[in-house]
Amino acid sequence: MSDQKQTDLIHYTDSGALYGKPGLDLLLVETLHCRAVIAKQGAQLLEFRASNREPLLWLSPKALFEPGKSVRGGIPLCLPWFGDNRVDPTRPKHGLVRAKTWELAGVKELPRGEIELVFTYCHGGNALFSTAFLCEVTMILGRELDLQLRLENRGDESAEFSWAWHTYYAVDDVREVEVRGLENCEFLDKTRGLRRFTQEGVLTFPGEVDRVFENAPAQQQIATRAPIESHSENCHSVIAWNPGAELAATLADVGEHYREYVCVEHGNAFANSWQLAPGEMASAALRLAR
Ligand SMILES: O=P(O)(O)OC[C@H]1O[C@H](O)[C@H](O)[C@@H](O)[C@@H]1O
């Protein structure tokens, strides 16, 4: 692919130019198939919309674009731990990589016109997470969205990694959304001290919902106007979250907008966390379509 083509399809821009809030470097991808915006911080997809389709992702109108802080919306990647750190809860929630600047290691136009972007982040090992690791995220931006994760333990001891693609889907009203594909599955309820329950029927969001499904099925459907299909490979945990009105009012970058999204996150957390030996590599994938 020529450099010219590369610059035609990908624009290097920033959050000041796109959202009127300077702070983060962004990539804007516009092709016949789709439009996407990605922050180099966290390799975080902020927007994705297939041509003539509804936007897949929600980006908060109150989002902040501050270096070192995850942006509210799109698909932040939580890694190397999901949620509170189990050893030391004072460590940042959801791990480290969502607030770090990643390297754009590859850009390719595929034969059918999809754009493939490869981002890498290398952690050297520090007081927050002692094991060194290499993380690679590949995004294939076409009519559908394909995400792939490769994670390698580069340390000299075995370590536990828990992680999730923390996807914020755009919906008309979360109170009318149904998530299908989790019926009869057990979940840990984060709003009730992580006690275990069984999901009776489809999952709905009448108020605050924060549920961790371990050993979850590979496919879900978010039933709303213009339904969303998710298909994962080697992602055994699904986390469903919406804060509801009361909790949202305490989140400066959500507030009254909580009805506009639902999070259905895919990864490997809690009982599904990855234990990787030195030099061991693991991978997973997620395909999303609307
Ligand atoms: O506000 P954040 O750190 O991005 O976390 C947002 C949410 O992420 C996950 O869905 C967790 O299960 C929730 O407990 C958490 O509130």
UniProtKB/TrEMBL annotation:
It comes from the Bacteria. It catalyses: alpha-D-glucose 6-phosphate = beta-D-glucose 6-phosphate. Keywords: Isomerase. Its EC number is 5.1.3.15. One of its GO terms (molecular function) is isomerase activity. Coiled coil: none annotated. Belongs to the glucose-6-phosphate 1-epimerase family. This is Putative glucose-6-phosphate 1-epimerase. It comes from Microbulbifer taiwanensis.
